[in-house]
Design goal:
The structure holds two protein chains of two kinds.
Chain A lengths: L1 H15 L1 H37 L7 E6 L17 H8 L4 E16 L2 E10 L2 H6 L3 E4 L4 H5 L4 E4 L1 H8 L8 E4 L2 E9 L14 E5 H8 L7 E6 L5 H15 L10 E4 L1 H43 L2 H9 L4 H36 L9 H28 L2 H6 L2
Helix pairs in contact in A: 1-2, 1-11, 2-9, 2-11, 2-12, 9-12, 11-12
Chain B lengths: L1 E14 L2 E14 L3 E5 L6 H8 L7 E6 L2 E2 L5 H11 E4 L11 H10 L8 H11 L15 H13 L5 E5 L7 H16 L3 E6 L2 H4 L4 E6 L2 E7 L2 H7 L1
Parallel strand pairs in B: 3-8, 3-9, 6-7, 7-8
Antiparallel strand pairs in B: 1-2, 1-4, 4-5, 9-10
Helix pairs in contact in B: 3-4, 3-5, 4-5
The chains are: A alpha+beta, B alpha/beta.
Chain lengths: ~400, ~240
């Protein structure tokens, strides 16, 4: 069969032009590997970011009301004097509300003898633990008694505990904030750094009443966390909360809210927006790397075939048809594309797994980039592998054997 | 019957708007079994004439009948088959596939043959033995001397048992000893009944032929039979 002979000649051609074969294979391989790795890294970062946003301590049935107007999600919380404990009590009275956690917060230095660290201090009620579902590593969470008696007690997150006490057991020890000493009565379980660098363990908790009288010296709240009975009741609960707060704050019909909501939906919207932005970036980066890979393959092929015009001429002199030349170079391109393609997929997978495995970057491996780059690189290989060969085959044999 | 019949062949090349006439109205008939030497200074059009004879290029105008077939009317498939079956080429620059063993270079025409014989390797070995290269079967062109490479090309030109051997300056790249060897090979091929067309600018080489056509400036300047017996007697 003529086609098998052409295949044989193609194999011989690849062997004879070993240098070019290796270059082309590497070109295809790198093209595919870089694309797939970039997409895997992009996807990995995307899902981490999305996870991080989605895991900000919200169950589907909870939301937060932050004092102060504004639309910015991550806006720095100003000291606003609008939300009070009365607001929180009114909200708890709503029939669809299960829990309400009023909060104050302050970023401040906390000291143990010579060790000190800056952290976020939250003044909260005992329900905080229920609302967050955060387990204790040791000791107990703040109790109602602590709250009633404005006790100077503190629950440490894992990060300040480590910074202040190193390997010592902090339980029962005293830490100083400003001029007050607080007894450590509990330690929160460690959650660990998120990939984006956010440290959920960098916090300490004291009773809200203690915070009001000894830390912030004011009764206004930073925010109220509201947990509804059921996630389906979140929208109506939010509307009710809005009405109560507007009434309590004496806002006229035209006035804007002097508070803002952070909701699972809001977060999901944020997630979607981030996802879209990340997707656009990914698309751009992959397109660029695809183009670069394609151009590399194209150039290697163009050069390699220009070198082989004489060979094409010789074959034509001894009876090769144009179609024989085309088929031979088609086989060569297909073989190189397949070889480079599989190597590229392998390399891409290996690098992606490696980055994940050794905690360099989060990666997320999906099938699509592999298929896309495989098809694209093979197409480039085919087009630019065959087209110049066909052109050479259409020269008269006399012209092509004379070419150098 | 004429094996090669060229009637009013013209060939011109166009280069950046300039037209160069390389062959001007060449009419030439060659019979089967002829041993023809085509001589002329470089640039006279010998190589172009050979390219057209070998179906490696098409004439600009004129009619070329090879073995009763109008070459100008053949499509690529049929033309490739003519080159494959009827003509064996020997080039001055050898034109062997680099990196490929002598044996495989010799079998190249059979890769493209319509009905290749079963014992390709054996035939190639025989032919290489015939040109004295039985000990160089697996050497690549780079490992062979010029004379050896030329012998490989001769073996290659014979593998598909063509009726015509077209040799373009076969001794051009060889020293005199190898040149004489090559010419002896051609002489013996004629005795086997091949039609040989030898292109050269070397009068001495041309003297091996039975008929010498001299080309000057794209036209046939003279066409004469060589009387070998008369020559031998006069020596």
């Amino acid at each position: 069969m003529r086609i098998f002979k052409n295949l044989g000649q193609a194999l011989r051609g690849l062997r004879l032009n070993r240098g070019n074969t290796v270059l082309m294979t590497i070109g295809v391989m790198i093209g595919i590997a870089s694309l797939t790795v970039i997409v895997a890294i992009g996807d990995g970062i995307k899902s981490t970011v999305l996870n991080r946003i989605a895991n900000m301590g919200f169950g589907p049935e909870s939301f937060s009301v932050i004092a102060g107007a504004g639309k910015l999600f991550f806006a720095r919380s100003q000291n606003t004097t609008s939300m009070t404990l009365e607001d929180a009590e009114d909200l708890l009275a709503l029939p669809t509300v299960r829990l309400v956690v009023p909060r104050q917060r302050k970023s401040i230095q906390i000291i143990n003898k010579k060790e000190f660290t800056s952290t976020r201090i939250y003044g909260v009620t005992p329900d905080w633990q229920l609302a967050r579902g955060w387990k204790m590593k040791d000791g107990d969470f703040l109790s109602d008694t602590d709250l009633e008696r404005r006790k100077r007690v503190v629950v440490l997150g894992a990060t300040p505990a480590k910074k202040l006490f190193k390997s010592d057991d902090p339980m029962g020890k005293m830490v100083r904030v400003q001029n007050n000493y607080y007894e450590v009565i509990g330690l929160l379980e460690e959650k660990g750094l998120t990939e984006s660098g956010y440290d959920p363990d960098d916090r300490v908790l004291i009773p809200l009443t203690t915070s009001m009288s000894r830390l912030t010296h004011q009764t206004y709240l930073h925010s109220i966390k509201v947990v509804a009975l059921d996630s389906s009741q979140v929208p109506e609960t939010m509307e009710a909360v809005r009405q109560i707060l507007r009434r309590n704050h004496n806002l006229s019909v035209l006035a804007e809210d002097d508070f803002r909501f952070i909701t699972p939906e809001g977060i999901m919207q944020r997630v979607t927006e981030s996802e879209q932005a990340l997707n656009r970036m990914l698309m751009l980066v992959s397109t660029v790397s695809l183009l670069v890979g394609g151009i590399v393959i194209m150039n290697i092929l163009l050069v390699s075939i220009r070198e082989r015009v004489r060979e094409i001429g010789i074959r034509r002199c001894f009876g090769a048809r144009r179609s024989d030349i085309t088929v031979q170079f088609l086989f060569e391109s297909v073989l190189v594309s397949l070889l480079g393609g599989f190597m590229g997929v392998g390399l891409g997978l290996a690098i992606s797994f490696g980055l994940q495995r050794f905690d360099v970057l989060p990666t997320h491996i999906t099938v699509e980039p592999f298929i896309l780059s495989f098809v694209f690189c093979s197409l480039i290989g085919l087009i630019f592998g065959i087209h110049p060969a066909r052109k050479a085959a259409f020269l008269s044999p006399e012209e092509s054997i004379r070419s150098q | 019957m004429n094996l090669i019949e060229m009637n009013s062949i013209c060939k011109s090349y166009r280069n950046i708007g300039f037209e160069t006439k390389v062959l001007k109205d060449v009419t030439l008939h060659i019979k089967e079994g002829d041993y023809v030497g085509i001589i002329g200074p470089s640039g006279a059009g010998k190589s172009t004439l050979m390219a057209i004879m070998g179906c490696l290029a098409q004439p600009t105008s004129g009619e070329y009948i090879l073995d009763g077939e109008q070459v100008g009317k053949l499509n690529d498939r049929k033309l490739s088959r003519v080159r494959n079956e009827k003509i064996g080429f020997v080039f001055q620059a050898f034109h062997l596939l680099p990196g490929v063993s002598a044996l495989e270079n010799v079998t190249l025409p059979l890769v493209y043959a319509k009905n290749p014989p079963g014992n390709i390797k054996e035939r190639a070995r025989e032919l290489l033995a015939k040109v004295g290269l039985e000990h160089r079967l697996h050497h690549t062109p780079g490992q062979l001397s010029g004379g050896e490479q030329q012998r490989v090309t001769i073996a290659r030109s014979l593998i598909s048992d063509p009726r015509i051997i077209l040799a373009d300056e076969p001794t051009g790249n060889l020293d005199s000893k190898n040149g004489i060897e090559t010419m002896k090979t051609f002489d013996s091929l004629v005795k086997e009944g091949k039609t040989i067309i030898l292109i050269t600018h070397d009068q001495e080489v041309a003297q091996h032929a039975g008929r010498i056509i001299s080309i000057l400036d794209g036209q046939i300047a003279s066409d004469s039979e060589v009387n070998h017996e008369a020559q031998t007697r006069s020596l």
